[in-house]
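debug: dumping io for the single-chain case to check the tokenizer round-trip. Nothing else runs in this session.
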Amino acid sequence: MPVPDYGVWRAHPVHYNIDHASQDPKSPHLSLYFTETRDKHSDKCHHEYTGSGKEIRGLNRAAINIKSVDKDSRIVYWFNEDLDENHLTDLLADLPRGFHPLGEQQTPDLGLDYIRNNIINIPSGRLLVHDTDTPKNELLDLLEPRMQAAIREHADIYLFGSRSNSNSGSEMHNIHMNQGNMPKYQADDGIFQDGGLIFHFARAKKWIGLFITFTSQSAHTDEQSGHAIGSTTWADFFNEDMKEEHLEGSVAIEEVSVNSRKYQLKNCTEHPLQLASWKIHNSHGEFEKLPSTAKLDAFASEVFEAPKCVLSDQGDNITLLNEKGLKVAGVSYSAQRVKAHSSPLVFAH
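debug: decoded output
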């Protein structure tokens, strides 16, 4: 069965703590404390809260993994500061504060999916090793200033994960990828049920997201079950010696014409590619299979028509899968971008 009590919680951050190796050597977390009200804790800084254990009375807690319990304890993280034009932000902006259960919907409405929401640029991911000989932690160096700013500016946060109850309030767990798991955790697999943390700084009109996977998880997952496809894990993907072997990024979606349903694809490799039976998907489950003659010469671009893959002017996700169902490329656009830009929409790579 999928992860329990999955949903998204819109709230305000008010405090955070970080576990170090001496405190929790096996499974350290970053604890982010939050409330649904804007003013109750608005003047407190993160260091003003004290208490025993990890619970703080009157506050809810999100437990964010910064180390895996697997043999390879590293995690991979993406810090996306360009979420403004992702279609998911269209759906989150009007969500009332509080927890919203999403259950086993397996639909792209509000559930987070790293692969199908096209919310991460996979090659930009970074490996994190917790508590090495140096005190430097790249993830925390990036995250702490944003958390401090979010607390100071009363920003909104959107926490995706599993809700559970504690003595002091509610907690959010599984704030990481929840598909493509190793056999031990395969029962948690599912699509559109990934965990993550998204900040919205309303005054600056800025959306920022943190997304985390474990190195043991698969880089490709089944479209229905979320189970791993193939043997390539995130550890393999970020192995410098193997990078050129990976499919992701070999073809880019350069331009999309929303009304005419035309897609410009580019071969990013130095050899020709056959695209027969590759599929272009939208966020509503519709797709168009490319013809048997479809191909791209080395570094060449070509426009393909996909009349069955209808794109929405209210924002959409576009994903390119190869003949084996493995993701090759993906882009996303918001309703605001459609209003602000003339067709075609151009995507930078």
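debug: round-trip ok. Residues 42-48 have pLDDT under 50 and may be disordered.
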